[in-house]
Specification:
This protein is an alpha/beta fold. It has a domain of about 240 residues: Luciferase-like domain (TIM Barrel). It is built from eleven helices and 13 strands. α1 runs parallel beside α11 and α3 crosses α4.
Length: about 350
């Protein structure tokens, strides 16, 4: 392990920005202007990458946003979420290569094993489709033609004219906790993403994923997606976390969680278990607060504390093998600034390097 980590922020494209969780705020609704301000704040503060999430029924389109923001960024990468069920692989390859050119080669890709809109597909076939999608996308972005006959895709495509800046595909980031998801990650991902969990559980998942990848003759890098609340003192940080929930009622939180397309996934269930097993104050272990999960699906816990405590927590994850952090906070531009001033300069960070992204 080099000691360097990639530190990314989150662009809140999917109507997920609040001052008080569960209380819609017209100032923070997903829009070009608001999400641009988050991206430019992250660029200014020195973050290495920016996750552009995608939700079929939520927020604004991330591919269009990526194309719009790319010319405004000078050094930061973008991590574009690609929902498998909503793209034809050659179309996705063309869009990715084009945006990579606009970013001068600084695009990375977050593969999401989504269903098609209105579709209900079992776990095994859905992740099989994802593996096929990654295989086809890998070939096309590496400049190769494709003659593919799989369970879900049957196509023959000439080598694409439009290529990435490097001529090779960007790194694939991928997350999922089920057996099928882990198998898909071991098959075709470069960076396996975990949601918040206890140190012991994180260690267990990393060990399992290393074993699965090794069995396929591959290696993985690991990332950790979490929220953060950092203030000058622990007391102030805990008070800021409590304030986020001060206007939330249980029914509103449940309605928000149910909107997400992944609300029934194994990963989401694990976040609920983590929340239910936490102490009365919502902390599952020191500085890991599960309260955020009461008002959102997906990653449902935050690292909370003063700058020294947050830094120590991140370094503890790093010691387990985490090499990339994707962080967020509420409101996103405000928390990006706070973390960027209090913690980011104390981390040895830079873009995550995947040694052989052609695998």
């Amino acid at each position: 392990m080099s000691g360097t980590v990639e530190v990314s922020w989150f662009s809140a494209l999917c109507d997920d920005d609040y001052e008080f969780l569960g209380q819609p705020d017209p100032r923070l609704v997903s829009s070009w202007a608001h999400c641009r301000s988050i991206a430019l704040t992250a660029e200014e503060m020195g973050y290495d990458n920016l996750l552009l999430p995608s939700g079929y029924a939520l927020g604004i389109d991330n591919v269009a946003f990526a194309a719009g923001i790319a010319p405004l960024l000078k050094r930061m990468r973008l991590l574009l979420a690609v929902r498998v069920g909503e793209f034809w692989p050659p179309q996705a390859a063309r869009q990715i290569a084009t945006i990579d050119q606009m970013l001068d080669g600084r695009l990375t890709v977050n593969i999401i094993s989504s269903e098609m809109p209105g579709e209900t597909l079992g776990s095994a076939p859905r992740y099989q489709r994802t593996k096929e999608f990654m295989d086809i996308l890998r070939a096309l972005l590496n400049g190769d033609g494709v003659d593919y006959q799989g369970e879900h895709y049957s196509l023959k495509v000439d080598p694409p004219r439009v290529k990435t800046v490097s001529g090779r595909r960007p790194a694939f980031y991928f997350g999922g906790l089920s057996h099928d998801a882990r198998d898909a990650a071991a098959h075709g991902a470069d960076v396996y993403l975990l949601w918040p969990d206890t140190m012991g559980e994180v260690k267990s998942v990393l060990e399992d994923m290393r074993s699965r990848a090794k069995a396929k003759g591959r290696t993985l890098k690991f990332g950790y997606r979490a929220h953060v609340v950092v203030r000058e003192t622990e007391e102030e940080a805990r008070a800021a976390a409590d304030r986020l929930l001060s206007k939330l009622d249980a029914s509103t939180g449940a309605a928000i969680r149910s909107k997400s397309l992944d609300s029934a996934s194994v990963g989401v269930r694990r976040q609920a278990e983590l929340r239910e097993s936490a102490a009365n104050d919502g902390y599952a272990e020191p500085h890991l607060w599960t309260g955020i999960g009461r008002a959102r699906s997906g990653a449902g816990a935050a690292i909370v504390g003063d700058p020294d405590q947050v830094l120590a927590k991140l370094k503890a994850y790093q010691a387990l093998g985490i090499e990339a952090f994707i962080l967020s906070g509420y409101p996103h531009a405000v928390e990006a600034d706070l973390f960027g001033r209090y913690v980011l300069p104390r981390l040895r960070h830079g873009p995550l390097l995947v040694e052989d992204a052609s695998l």
